[in-house]
Structure formats: structure tokens, C-alpha cells
UniProtKB/TrEMBL annotation:
<protein>
    <submittedName>
        <fullName>DNA repair exonuclease</fullName>
    </submittedName>
</protein>
<keyword id="KW-0540">Nuclease</keyword>
<keyword id="KW-0269">Exonuclease</keyword>
<dbReference type="InterPro" id="IPR004843">
    <property type="entry name" value="Calcineurin-like_PHP"/>
</dbReference>
<dbReference type="InterPro" id="IPR029052">
    <property type="entry name" value="Metallo-depent_PP-like"/>
</dbReference>
<feature type="domain" description="Calcineurin-like phosphoesterase">
    <location>
        <begin position="3"/>
        <end position="192"/>
    </location>
</feature>
<keyword id="KW-0378">Hydrolase</keyword>
<dbReference type="InterPro" id="IPR050535">
    <property type="entry name" value="DNA_Repair-Maintenance_Comp"/>
</dbReference>
<dbReference type="InterPro" id="IPR041796">
    <property type="entry name" value="Mre11_N"/>
</dbReference>
<dbReference type="GO" id="GO:0004527">
    <property type="term" value="F:exonuclease activity"/>
</dbReference>
<dbReference type="Pfam" id="PF00149">
    <property type="entry name" value="Metallophos"/>
</dbReference>
Length: 418
């Protein structure tokens, strides 16, 4: 059997965002450097045949000395155990990763200068391509060489999938499917894909949460090749995680009850993780309040007070804090009924239902059409909270926020509205 540990975007030198003020002193233990050390320890413990880095290992081109110490220490440990490290350069570390590879003997850069390169690891070969400059507008798959024994080749690439006008090596899903490899392990988008099929193709995701919209488990992937079969398993090693948790406010009698409901929701969420081998040190809760509220007019203020007045608390070994509260009560319960209406409320309800269902055929198209408009808005000071490089989950979140707010406003204008 050949085993590899594949790591997505690490961004050494970048600090995690959206931490509670009381957790600022813990920032070094929750960021990319801590995630990298966990990945190295996991690779050593498992005795893998190689470690793969899918680009954006380093945050900025000037961060050579920022990244050098932690990166070299980890790679030296791996080299001492006979574990090679192969990396491709992304758009963030186009200039600095080749310089680091020149300084760190055991760091092997694949595909330097934008030329595809293959290297063997155990019974597999890794085919990689690196950014030759920070902006690349052509599809690197169009220059892919002929692949021999594709069932034993893993593609390693930093790219922007299905974004034809992207300056970050745009590729298409069709090209990835058509290219003759056993798998494509991608960097660039921080939201990991499901890679549990017979032929894994997709994004590895970030090594840890770097911003609040990086929701869900994060960490490297264990790639196993045995008897001609390839399997990918995510190892959620990230020290920091953000999770979306719903709270049904229907049973609550008063605004003060929201605090107890938050504690109960936090405990219930932690219970779902107790049997996992890997758990984060800190989880930021992004709460969504649903149901029918008995104190609707006071709910928004109660949500604001919860964020401003709460402090982190511990459940078992995990520290929790409230990072965000979204009010999605009232009209949300009537979406199916509203969606049957042929008016602006019906249109908004249908769009919300599409955004809530990732399997809906219009879901991805709606997000793709909204992305450039949100990116433009991110440049305005009124929207400083909006990251310009939103991933799909971030776009979906802001669209849902806007749609729900507008729908509630429209319903409030109707005759007979409370």
C-alpha cells in the first residue's frame, strides 16, 4: 500500500480572523503554523510515503523569513523519517515558495516555471504544475503532457475551477474529468470538496479555518492506494473551526432565554464530535435562529447582546464562543407556501429554497452569478466585513442574509402584517 498526506492551503504567516477578543492570546496556537505542526505529526505517526502541498503554503511573497522556521522544522522532521515533501506553488506563494525550496533541501517544488513535472512516491506518481507568476489566465490543463499508467498518477494543482475569467489558472470540471489521472487534488478554494468517490477530484480545502466563513471540518487528507484502488479520507486536524448551528426559538418565552438556548445548542453540537478522533481546540459558533418567535421585535437586539456580552466557555476539551447570530425566523417557516406565489415574495422564497439546497440544479449558477457583484461590493467601506475572495459558502451566506431580510421587509408591508 502507498499512503500520502495531502494538505491544501496553509497560508503560513496569516493570522486567523474573527476570534473572540478573549482568545487573542491563543492566536498562535490556532493559526496555520499550529495546523502545519499537527499535519507533520500525523504524517510521522502514520509513516506515510509522502506529503503533498497544494499551493499557497505561504501567505505573501515577502514572508520568506516568516514561514521559513516553521516550514523547515516540519520538513526536516519528515526528511529524518524518510518522508519526502512535494509542493506546487499557488498564486499567493508564486515567488516565495521556489525561494524556500532553494533553502530547504527536502522541499521538492513540482512544475516550476509553469511546466508540468512528475515524481514517483511509492507505487504512485505525482504530476504537478506551479504558478510561474501570480496571475495566470490560461488553463494549465491545455498543456498537460501525455500520461502513462494514469491509474497510478495523482494530479496536484492550484487552480480556479469553473471560473473562466479567473486570473488564477482557470480550469473546467470537464477538463479535470477528461485528464487521465487517478485523482486531482486541488488547492485555492478553502472549502473542501467531497473526495470520497472512486476517483477523487476536488479541493482539499484549507488546513485550518482562516476566516469565519470557513465553516465545517478542516485538515489534510489521507490518500491510500491499495490493489489498484484509490481512497481519500479527510483528517479534521484543524485547531480552529467555525460551525453553523441552528437554534429553534419557538419554545423561548423571553429574550433572556436565548443565552440558555445557546448553551444547550453548544453542548448538543459538542456531543456530535465526542466520538471523533480529532477535535478542534476552539469552535466559533455561527448561530441561525429559526422558528416562530414570541418576542420578534426584541429578537434582533437579543442577538446583538448575545454577541457583545458573551465570553468563551468550555465544553469538555473544546472552547466555544459565539461568532455570529443570524435571525431567520418568521417568514422562513412559510417558504414552501410563499414559493408558490407569483409575486416578489414568491420569487425571493424560491431563491432562498435554492440557496438552502446545494443539490438543486440552479444552486451553483445562482452563486456564480452573484459572485462578481459581491466582489464589487467588498471594495466599499460599508461592506468591510465582506471578503473579496469569498468562497461558495461565503457567497451563499450573504445571499441568504440579504434575501431573508428583504423578504421579511416585503411581508411586513402587506396588509394585515403585525
Amino acid at each position: 500500500m502507498t499512503t500520502l498526506l495531502a494538505i491544501g492551503d496553509i497560508h503560513l504567516g496569516r493570522s486567523p480572523a474573527a476570534l473572540h477578543p478573549d482568545l487573542q492570546t491563543q492566536r498562535p496556537g490556532l493559526g496555520p503554523e499550529a495546523a502545519w505542526r499537527r499535519c507533520v505529526n500525523e504524517a510521522l505517526e502514520r509513516g506515510v510515503d509522502g506529503v503533498l502541498l497544494a499551493g499557497d503554503v505561504v501567505e505573501r511573497s515577502r514572508d520568506l523569513l516568516v514561514a521559513y522556521g516553521d516550514l523547515k522544522q516540519g520538513i526536516d522532521q519528515l526528511a529524518a523519517a524518510g518522508i519526502p515533501v512535494l509542493a506546487v506553488a499557488g498564486n499567493h506563494d508564486t515567488l516565495v515558495l521556489p525561494r524556500l525550496a532553494a533553502e530547504i533541501d527536502a522541499l521538492h517544488l513540482l512544475g516550476a516555471g509553469g511546466r508540468w513535472q512528475k515524481k514517483s512516491l511509492g507505487k504512485l506518481s505525482v504530476l504537478g504544475w506551479s504558478f510561474p507568476r501570480p496571475h495566470v489566465r490560461h488553463n494549465p490543463l491545455h498543456e498537460l503532457p501525455r500520461i502513462e499508467r494514469p491509474e497510478r498518477v495523482i494530479g496536484l494543482l492550484h487552480c480556479d475551477r469553473d471560473q473562466s475569467d479567473s486570473p488564477y489558472a482557470p480550469v473546467t470540471s470537464q477538463d479535470l474529468e477528461a485528464a487521465g489521472t487517478a485523482a486531482w487534488l486541488l488547492g485555492h478554494i478553502h472549502q473542501p470538496d467531497r473526495l470520497d468517490g472512486e476517483r477523487p477530484i476536488g479541493y482539499l480545502g484549507s488546513a485550518t479555518a482562516l476566516r469565519a466563513s470557513d465553516t465545517g471540518p478542516r485538515g489534510p487528507w489521507l490518500i491510500e492506494f491499495n490493489d489498484g484502488q484509490l481512497a481519500a479520507t479527510q483528517l479534521p486536524l484543524a485547531p480552529l473551526r467555525f460551525d453553523t448551528v441552528q437554534i429553534d426559538v419557538s419554545p423561548l418565552e423571553a429574550p433572556e432565554d436565548l443565552a440558555e438556548a445557546t448553551l444547550a445548542a453548544g453542548r448538543a453540537h459538542i456531543e456530535t464530535l465526542q466520538n471523533e478522533r480529532f477535535v478542534p481546540d476552539v469552535i466559533g459558533l455561527r448561530l441561525t435562529l429559526t422558528g416562530r418567535c414570541r418576542f420578534e421585535s426584541a429578537l434582533t437586539q437579543a442577538a446583538d447582546d448575545l454577541i457583545a456580552g458573551s465570553r468563551p466557555w468550555k465544553e469538555g476539551s473544546i472552547r466555544l464562543f459565539v461568532q455570529k447570530v443570524v435571525v431567520a425566523t418568521g417568514a422562513a417557516a412559510d417558504l414552501e407556501r410563499l414559493a408558490r406565489q407569483e409575486d416578489p415574495c414568491g420569487l425571493l422564497a424560491r431563491r432562498i429554497l435554492v440557496l438552502q439546497d446545494s443539490a438543486h440544479p440552479e444552486h451553483q449558477d445562482l452563486i456564480a452569478r452573484a459572485r462578481p457583484h459581491l466582489a464589487e461590493a467588498a471594495g466599499q467601506k460599508e461592506f468591510r466585513e465582506l471578503a473579496a475572495d469569498l468562497d461558495d459558502e461565503g457567497v451563499r451566506y450573504w445571499l441568504l442574509q440579504a434575501a431573508r431580510t428583504t423578504l421579511n421587509d416585503l411581508l411586513a408591508q402587506k396588509p394585515g402584517a403585525p
